[in-house]
Amino acid sequence: MIKFKSDADRDSVMHELELNMNEEFRAAIQYICHRITAQSIDSMMAEAFKSAALDEMSHILFFSDLITKHGGTPKFRNWDTDKSIDIKTMLEKDIELEKSARKRYSAQLKQMKDYPEILSIIQSVLSDEEEHEAIFTDYLEKMT
Ligand SMILES: [Fe+2]
Ligand SMILES: [Fe+2]
Q: pTM for the full model?
């Protein structure tokens, strides 16, 4: 169990973990929608969406398990996902999501520097997000 510096610190970490879990849900669902739409247009790209969605699914559970382990109850929000059916728009929306994830996790690396267990999970998730962003950007560049 992590020993938090204060109750306020624990609350703030738990809040961030819950935000992460919900943002990961949003990405997982969005990429599955994009996988379905892309399937008849570009099966390689569809596979890239699926692979990213599966990574995001693992990320959901990393964060929900951290919350549960430390006595919290993960709460589900409403996930606002992109439902466009145009490949270029889909890739742009996905890159936006990855950029915002990268920003959030980079900030959390500083915020959670005293908690190595959480830090190592965020580092590993962040490296997956960097990879997703690079793959989506590569597909988008090939289109333009
Ligand atoms: Fe993720
Ligand atoms: Fe991602």
A: 0.96
Low-confidence ranges of the chain (pLDDT < 70): none
Instruction: Please give the CATH number for the structural domain made up of 8-143.
Output: 1.20.1260.10
Distance 83 CA to ligand 2 centre (A): 17
128 Cα: distance to centroid of ligand 2 (angstroms):
6
Tell me, in angstroms, the distance from the centre of ligand 1 to residue 20's CA. Answer: 8
* Cα-to-centroid distance, 141 and ligand 1 (Å): 22
Dig out the tokens for 136 from the structure: 């989506």
